[in-house]
Amino acid sequence: MSPVTTTSPKPLPDAATAGRLEDLIPIAVAIAAGCERCAERTVRRSLEQGSSARAVARTLGIVAHMRSLDCFAKAVPAQVIARMAGPLRAGERALAEGRAAAGEGRCCG
User: Fold this and answer.
1) What pLDDT score was predicted for residue 9?
2) Above pLDDT 70, what percent of the chain?
3) What is the pLDDT of residues 21-38, one digit of tens each?
4) Where are the alpha helices (DSSP H) in the chain?
5) Is residue 6 domain-resident?
6) For residue 106, is it within any domain?
7) How many structural domains are present in the chain?
8) Residue 13 resides in a domain
9) Rounded to the nearest 10 degrees, what angle do helices 21-33 and 53-68 cross at?
C-alpha cells in the first residue's frame, strides 16, 4: 500500500472543463461536517482554482441528492443529515455570488 501524500496529484484530463477533484471533494466534506463557513470557502476556492460553476453546482447537487436517499438516512444519524442543510445553502449562496461576480446569468453580457 502506498503512503498518503499531501501534495495534489496531477489534474484529470477533463479538469479544465469539469473541475479538479482536489477542489470539489472538500466542498462535500465541509457540508458533511456541518460547517457553513467552510462550505462557503471551499466553493469560493474551487471557483478561484478554475473549477467551472457547473462542476461546483453538480457537486452541490450530488450532496443534496445523497441527503435525500433512504440508504444514507439509514447509515447516517438524522442530526448529521439535518446539520448538512445550512452548509449546503451556504455553498449554494457562494456559488451564486461567484456566478454573479463572473457575470454569468446576465442578459446580453
Assistant:
1) 47
2) 79
3) 899 999 999 999 999 999
4) 21-33, 36-48, 53-68, 70-75, 78-83, 85-101
5) no
6) no
7) 1
8) no
9) 40
Domain that holds residue 31: 21-101
What is the distance between the alpha carbons of residues 52 and 54, in angstroms, rounded to a whole number?
5
Is residue 2 included in any domain, yes or no?
no
Mean pLDDT of 89-106: 89
The CATH code of the domain that includes 30 is 1.20.1290
Q: How confident is the model at residue 14 (pLDDT cuts 50, 70, 90)?
A: low
**Residue holding cell 467552510?**
38
Integer Cα distance of 61 and 59 in angstroms: 5
CA–CA dist 10, 25 (Å, integer): 15
Question: Residue 33's pLDDT is what?
Answer: 96
Task: State the pTM of this model.
Answer: 0.78
Q: Give the whole-angstrom CA distance, residue 39 versus residue 84.
A: 10
C-alpha cell at 104: 454569468
